[in-house]
Amino acid sequence: MDTVVKEVTALYDKLAECKAKTVINKGGARSSKSYSIAQYLVYWLVNGQNKKIGVTRKTFPALRRTAYDLIIGLLKDYGIYKERNHNKSFYTYTHGTNKIEFFSMDDPEKLKSTGFNLIWMEEANEFTYDDYFILWLRLSEPTKEGERNQIFLSFNPIDENNWIAKTLVLEEDVEIIHSTYKDNPFLDKDYVKALESIIDKDSNYYRVYVLGEWGSLDNLIYSNFELIDSLPEEYQAMAYGLDFGFVNPVALVKVCLIDNNIYLDERIYKNHITNSELIEMLSHEERGDIYADRDELQRIEEISRAGHVIYSGEKDVKMGIDLCARHKLFITKRSVNGIKELRGYQRKVNRNGEVLEEPIKYNDHFCDAMRFGVYGLVSRFGFATSAPAAGSVIHSLKKEKVSSSVLHELGAYLCQQ
């Protein structure tokens, strides 16, 4: 059989050699674990016989923007993709006698009559053990002699207390493949430098994202958020928060205020885009004020000259976090990167084990953009507190610029309620 897979890492070879029924791919940031699994599934899609392959994430919006796009992109890059084989209504792709199906686990009942040879659980720590077990039972399709049905799990090991660490690794017929950024020879040198610098920021983040070892979810900043299908059609105020980047991603977050709640939608999250490309992307968004990272005044000026209403965002991180954390956050399921950031956004711990007020400065692009947007709306339209004594009070800051001192007073008031 002729393989079509190109530019593989050593991790791909480990996958091909692994014979366990359950394969746990635990690793740090950009270790090629997801990319390698995608390549491995493409190999079987093209070269297998009568193979049924399943690819899943907990929610479908997240799946569509990650593993689905990745695999369809690989098929196109390798010159395999044919439009007639791609059922975009049912999210399947057929090649000869083989078929790959993309589905979410928000409704496990849909899988009762379905069988697979290979299954990939992307971002497996989003799932429950029950989800895993249902999928494991679906590895029921016939195989050729010498082949096995397998389920692959990929994730960053952010929580040493989750079901994978506590239960799954102890079961039989389970193999762990550990990986780090060093397993990926195709990484940008600037990214590697930024990743390695985490050692000076936080030992837990360094353990998870650089070493690919189990970490802990202590000292989370945002624990009070809920996933929603889409933003409400009506809101009291709306703006955008914008965090600039190039090697790191540019993040644009739509922020809406409704009563005492904050609603969030990830609009852009992409690296290696120029300011002119960003301006083009902004032209396709609903018009609204933009609050951006004030360290990039030249980029702000260029966006302003292109006709967008854009302001320098407030850099007081603690104040911004206080404003966001005091209220219930609702985030759309399609905000894949934002959800991941919120689930791991933690306060720093110093060398003496003391928890600091400031957050760890890593994987925080959505969080920074959100903070800029929320702070901007406070200054323009007012903000409703959630305290019982002031539940009906909207602070009278509407339609006027206010100074940082006023905002600090507002923050102090909120923290006293």
From TrEMBL:
Phage terminase large subunit C-terminal domain segment(s): 243-372
Gene3D superfamilies: 3.30.420.280, P-loop containing nucleotide triphosphate hydrolases
Residue ranges crossing the lipid bilayer per the database entry: none
Domain Phage terminase large subunit N-terminal: 20-213
Entry protein name: Phage terminase large subunit N-terminal domain-containing protein
